[in-house]
UniProtKB/TrEMBL annotation, chains A, E:
Disulfide bond keyword on record: no
GO CC, alphabetical: plasma membrane
GO molecular function, one term: ABC-type amino acid transporter activity
Lineage, top ranks: Bacteria, Pseudomonadati, Pseudomonadota, Alphaproteobacteria, Rhodobacterales
Protein name (record): Glutamine ABC transporter ATP-binding protein
Membership in a protein family: Belongs to the ABC transporter superfamily.
ABC transporter domain mapped to chain residues: 2-236
SMART domains for this protein: AAA (SM00382)
The entry's keywords: Amino-acid transport, ATP-binding, Cell membrane, Membrane, Nucleotide-binding, Transport
Organism: Paenirhodobacter enshiensis
PROSITE patterns assigned to the protein according to its UniProt record, in alphabetical order: ABC_TRANSPORTER_1, ABC_TRANSPORTER_2
Top-level taxon in the UniProt lineage: Bacteria
A Pfam family: ABC_tran
UniProtKB/TrEMBL annotation, chain B:
Molecular function GO terms recorded: L-cystine transmembrane transporter activity
InterPro entries in alphabetical order: AA_ABC_transptr_permease_3TM (IPR010065), ArtM/GltK/GlnP/TcyL/YhdX-like (IPR043429), MetI-like (IPR000515), MetI-like_sf (IPR035906)
Recorded family membership: Belongs to the binding-protein-dependent transport system permease family. HisMQ subfamily.
NCBIfam families named in the record: HEQRo_perm_3TM
Gene Ontology cellular-component terms listed: ATP-binding cassette (ABC) transporter complex
Tagged with keyword Acyltransferase: no
Organism: Paenirhodobacter enshiensis
Coiled coil: none
Compartments it resides in: Cell inner membrane; Cell membrane
Protein's UniProt name: Amino acid ABC transporter
UniProtKB/TrEMBL annotation, chain D:
GO molecular function, one term: L-cystine transmembrane transporter activity
Protein name per UniProt: ABC transporter permease
Species assigned in the record: Paenirhodobacter enshiensis
Subcellular location: Cell inner membrane; Cell membrane
Family of this protein: Belongs to the binding-protein-dependent transport system permease family. HisMQ subfamily.
Gene Ontology cellular-component annotations: ATP-binding cassette (ABC) transporter complex
Keyword Nucleus found: no
Domain ABC transmembrane type-1: 22-211
Keyword field: Amino-acid transport, Cell membrane, Membrane, Transmembrane, Transmembrane helix, Transport
Length: 240, 217, 248, 221, 240
């Protein structure tokens, strides 16, 4: 369970998160939508402790992420995250990309790590690309590799930050399919996305961020069907 | 020019000079690179304020003619501190720091060019700062920085022509010595220039090739 | 221990020599150091019972080489100017030069006075260079160019980059005779006072300076001075190293 | 602590002479930069001209400039040309040597900068009815100069540092030459060269700072 | 009127245009759709003479574009073109971007050029951004500026090459609105686009390119409603 309480966060003068409350239960898929700069990415990076927060608290399985005593490297093993871009380690093959963390962080043997990696890469449809370098992959394949890499750590939670927005329209589908598959397998996920169709279809709840505030949160039918705030109405109209 | 009195011994003498050029360069580049990586990481990690003293000192090495650096170091070590240090040692020490000053910039630039998301991806997988540095950042920064580093190494080789001021007889100095005796300046200078060119040009081309190849993927 | 002790116990005497200054210092056909100064250094080392090591320097670098500890003594045809004596300790003279004008034939220079208004040069930091630069300033016309080595001066002179230089008679004759520089002529003596040259070491090494003084004295007494003169410079009498009317 | 007595006073008395030398140093560096940029533009043009001989000559220049020591280039400009009976003053030789070097490095740079400007920029210009020359002059060139501005600043700093090599061709009026001449008389090596170093440092800082101001004025995008 | 007849064009071995025939009457809006690499952009650059053609002819107002005697610079003044990307001259302000060509090509005075520029910039909704540099504009604003820049030359024809495809979804709308406005004002236009909704709505005729051939051309209702060729059916299915 991820429990976010009254989280505030500023970059210098700019307050990016203005008191966010959100609880994500195990097995739940929460999608976050919202305009550019509304703080969506920032929230995700706060959840796995890549960015410190100013006040409030974030607990993952009851453990406070921003407590000094928390071993963040340990905690991050169970929170996978995939970003919009530059996810791949370009100097490593696909297989090495996926085995690196299990070997160095979980201290697995090479054989063991490779077994898991191959399984996850097959899972996302990259079983044929093991010894290719990411530079030779399409953007969609790179993103799926990044997902496999995160999955290889056997995370309990997955965070996705607009994983399709840097992709050509043709490639979006294959990555979203991978996410759908994960959702259907019961993975707990928070997905930031611009793909409304996807959000509608896959989420248990959709959250709408506006200027650092979570303006609305509701099951998709409700949120898309009957947007309450003027901002959300406007936002939905713009993205038709 | 074609009936030269340049003998086989003289060629050996030139080769010794060339050997000295390469030796001084190799030592300076080796030590300078290690120091440069350390300074570069420090400058990147410590932030501008903490790193200011290091930044300042390294900047000195890039803002004062190498000739003066050599003369000053020589005078300071020998005249002021009265340490007996060979010209070779002084030359290597100064050139190493000179190399380090440039190398630190290259390293810092290389690290900065690693996309922050790639580093975040590594940290998100539970890797420690050190693991991130050794497995992700340095390998990637190396690819970005290698062409410039090759340029630097060649630059140091060319600049090592100045170590004659601390009584080290490298290639250009050997050439001048032979000119004194044989009085065939043009011919000898062309040999000397050709030597630098033959070493530098292919390596520089190789650097350009790497740059092109790596910037494409 | 002072430097005299240091040299004796280290077993090596490091001499700063200038090797583009024939016949005083040069390289033989094996590119090995040779010349009057080189032999003189070897003699000094022999007297001290140590091995000699030649450290080649340029003229401008010979005193910095001593000051920075690269050498123990300079045997480098160094004029004993008062300015230099502020920095290093000078022995009594071990040789004396007379200077001559060497000109490029094409310049039409026949005597030292013809140099007025011409482009002239000499080796940076030498006695001749300082005198010549002074003259050019005094004349208020012409150009003076210092080069880093005697070789560059003669190269420039033979290429016609400069019209004339001032060099010691020995160097002038040796270079003209070598045949390496066609078109150079000796245009006669200069009105410079004879150029007495000394060995030098650190200013505060009195023991060593004393030793060198006695050594120079012995070289003359034993006839080694004349012997070296005949070996490197030629027939005739070596210059008198005493100066009438004063002590030193 | 030191066995050495510093004679700063004696050295500082020579400051006016050294500052005169610094002026000459800056003059040479500036002149060599202006000439270097002109030649670099010509070399870049020659290399892109598609005319084999011309392009090979330009490439030869660029590669020699970049692959041999600057000291060698300056020495060649004096004694190398001297072998052909071309007599140049130390000032001119030094200027030619540094200009040769600057032009080579800058030409390589300009070529890279040109590559970084998308071809669509020229196309956009041509589509608006501009001639090729107009499109180059109004659209490509300004962007190229901006991309090359930092490297040009660095090259300017290099040019200043390279003037110190003039002593090998008999230069005695620039900062290094003056310092060496003073040193030959008094042998206060450390003091004199420390002052020279400080002046060189100041010059390079003024250049980089000035360049930053200039860039802020010139490039507001 | 733009008359394109039997135009063939190869890049090296690759034949990109395999005999294209198309006539665009004054006031008409023709949209071109088709897969990547089908030769759409190439055709546009041939129309204003940026690329030479191998055979066939292109006439604009009866003047042969690829005739050697044609003054192309002159001809281009009446054909505006806007590309997918890097349209803005980054070193010039918005106003300077727009006034450059009128001043240098049409030799207008500064005041005159600025008057026209301001009018056109207001027209595309950039009246407030005159002294901004393009780097500070959003992608959509940059594209609208590029349109204003082309309009400032008072062209009789406008060619648009996927002007929205490099834009974030939110910004697409504002650029399409500008195109709609131009169309409604009677400008003769050829638009290459991936936006089917836009094509349907604004075009008089839609042309479908496939591998260098104009496989179909028809009014939008007909083309989208009853695609004849299998390729077009497939293409439309893929872009849903
Ligand atoms: N490291 C940082 N330093 C300073 N400001 C930052 C930093 N990261 C983000 N910001 C600012 O914080 C605000 C919120 O950024 P964030 O990336 O969370 O937005 P977002 O909702 O993810 O937007 P987008 O949809 O464009 O990705 C933005 O104004 C951004 O400029
Ligand atoms: N300058 C060129 N040199 C060589 N080949 C080119 C050039 N320009 C285009 N091509 C090739 O011609 C073909 C058609 O290109 P074109 O840009 O016209 O396609 P398009 O239909 O516009 O595709 P897209 O929708 O991707 O923009 C492609 O295969 C492309 O690689
Ligand atoms: Mg974001
Ligand atoms: Mg196209």
């Amino acid at each position: 369970m991820i429990e976010i309480e009254k989280v505030r966060k500023s970059f210098g003068q700019l307050e990016v998160l203005k008191g966010i409350d959100l609880t994500v239960k195990n097995g739940e898929v929460v999608t976050i939508i919202g305009g550019s700069g509304s703080g969506k990415s920032t929230l995700l990076t706060c959840i796995n402790g890549l960015e410190p927060i100013d006040s409030g608290s974030i607990k993952v399985d009851g453990q406070d992420v921003h407590d000094k005593r928390t071993n963040l490297n340990k905690l991050r093993e169970k929170i996978g995250i995939v970003f919009q871009q530059w996810n791949a380690f370009p100097h490593l093959t696909v297989l090495e990309n996926v085995t690196l963390a299990p070997r160095k962080v979980l201290k697995m043997s090479k054989a063991e790590a490779e077994e898991i990696a191959v399984r996850q890469l097959r899972h996302v449809g990259l079983g044929e690309k093991l010894s290719t370098y990411p530079g030779r992959l399409s953007g969609g394949q790179q993103q799926r590799m990044a997902i496999a890499r995160a999955l290889a750590m056997s995370p309990e939670y997955m965070l996705f930050d607009e994983v399709t927005s840097a992709l050509d329209p043709q490639l979006v589908g294959e990555v979203l399919d991978t996410l759908r598959m994960l959702a259907s397998e019961g993975m707990t996920m928070i997905c930031v996305t611009h793909e409304m169709k996807f959000a509608r279809e896959v989420s248990d709840r959709v959250a709408f961020f506006h200027k650092g505030v979570m303006a609305e949160i509701a099951p998709p039918e409700e949120l898309f069907g009957a947007p309450k705030t003027a901002e959300l109405q406007q936002f939905l109209a713009a993205t038709h | 020019m074609f009936n030269t009195s340049l003998g086989i011994d003289d060629l050996i003498f030139l080769a010794q000079g060339a050997g000295m050029t390469i030796l001084v360069t190799a030592i300076a580049v080796a030590i300078g690179t290690v120091l440069g990586i350390a300074f570069g990481i420090f400058r990147y990690q410590a932030g501008p304020v903490l790193a200011a003293p290091v930044t300042f000192v390294l900047d000195l090495f890039r803002s004062i003619p190498l000739l003066i650096q050599l003369v000053l170091a020589n005078a300071f070590i020998g005249t002021v501190l009265r340490l007996k240090m060979s010209g070779f040692t002084v030359a290597c020490a100064v050139l190493s720091l000179y190399t380090a000053a440039y190398c630190a910039e290259i390293v810092r630039g290389g690290i900065q060019a690693v996309p922050s998301n790639t580093r975040r991806a590594a940290r998100s997988l539970g890797m420690s700062w050190f693991q991130d540095m050794t497995h992700i950042v340095l390998p990637l920064a190396t690819r970005i920085a290698l062409p410039s580093w090759i340029g630097l190494a060649l630059g140091v080789m060319k600049d090592s022509a100045l170590v004659y001021v601390v009584q080290v007889t490298e290639l250009l100095k050997s050439t001048q010595i032979l000119i004194t005796r044989l009085q065939e300046p043009l011919f000898l200078l062309l040999i000397c220039g050709a030597f630098y060119f033959i070493i530098s040009f292919p390596i520089a081309r190789f650097g350009g090739y790497l740059e092109k190849r790596w910037s494409n993927d | 221990a002072d430097m005299l002790d240091d040299v004796i116990s280290s077993g090596t005497l490091r001499c700063a020599v200038v090797l583009d200054f024939p016949p005083m210092g040069m390289r033989d056909k094996d590119n090995k150091p040779a010349g009057f100064d080189v032999d003189y250094c070897n003699d000094l080392a022999k007297a001290l019972g140590v091995k000699a090591e030649m450290v080649e320097t340029t003229f401008p670098e010979r005193i910095p080489a001593l000051m920075s500890g690269k050498v123990d003594v300079g045997v480098a045809s160094t004029s004993d100017t008062l300015e230099r004596a502020k920095t290093v300790g000078m022995s009594v003279p071990y040789y004396a030069f007379e200077d001559a004008v060497v000109a490029n034939e094409k310049s039409g220079i026949k005597t030292w006075e013809d140099m007025k208004g011409k482009t002239v040069g000499a080796t940076a930091g030498t006695y001749e260079a300082i005198w010549l630069e002074g003259k050019v300033k005094e004349w208020g016309t012409g150009t003076f160019r210092p080069y880093q080595s005697q070789a560059d001066v003669f190269l420039a002179l033979s290429q016609g980059q400069i019209d004339a230089t001032v060099a010691t008679t020995e160097v002038a004759n040796s270079n003209i005779k070598s045949g390496n520089f066609p078109g150079l002529v000796n245009a006669g003596k200069t009105p410079m006072v004879p150029d007495y040259v000394s060995l030098f070491t650190r200013r505060d090494e009195y023991g060593f300076i004393n030793y060198m003084n006695l050594f120079i004295n012995q070289q003359v007494r034993t006839g080694r001075y004349a012997e070296l003169y005949h070996k490197w410079i030629g027939d005739g009498e070596p210059a008198d190293l005493t100066i009438h009317g004063v002590y030193r | 602590m030191f066995h050495y007595t510093f004679h700063w006073n004696q050295a500082f008395q020579k400051l006016p002479q050294m500052l005169d030398g610094a002026l000459v140093t800056v003059e040479i560096a500036l002149a060599s930069m202006v000439l270097g940029i002109v030649f670099a533009v010509l070399l870049t043009g020659a290399r892109l001209s598609g005319w084999r001989t011309l392009s090979a000559l330009a490439t030869g220049w660029v590669e020699i400039a970049r692959n041999t020591p600057a000291l060698f280039q300056i020495y060649m400009a004096h004694f190398g040309l001297g072998s052909f009976g071309i007599h140049l003053s130390p000032f001119t030789s030094l200027l030619i040597g540094i200009t040769f070097n600057n032009a080579g490095y800058l030409a390589e740079n300009f070529r890279g900068a040109l590559k970084a400007i998308p071809e669509t920029q020229t196309r956009a210009g041509r589509s608006l009815g501009m001639t090729g020359v107009q499109a180059f002059g109004w659209i490509v060139l300004p962007q190229m100069l901006r991309i090359s501005f930092l490297p040009m600043t660095n090259q300017m700093v290099w040019a200043v540092l390279m003037t110190s090599l003039g002593v090998t061709v008999g230069m005695n009026t620039d900062l290094y030459g003056v310092t060496q001449a003073l040193n030959a008389i008094s042998f206060r090596t450390f003091e004199l060269f420390a002052i020279a170093a400080a002046i060189f440092y100041a010059i390079t800082k003024i250049i980089t700072f000035g360049a930053r101001l200039l860039a802020a004025r010139l490039f507001r995008y």
